[in-house]
Amino acid sequence: MFSLPVVHLPFDAANPAHWQDRGYILDFLCTAGGGDLLDFGPGDGWPSLLVAPFARHVTGVDASPRRVAVCEANAHRLGVSNFRCIHVPA
Question: pTM for the complete prediction?
Answer without folding.
Answer: 0.73
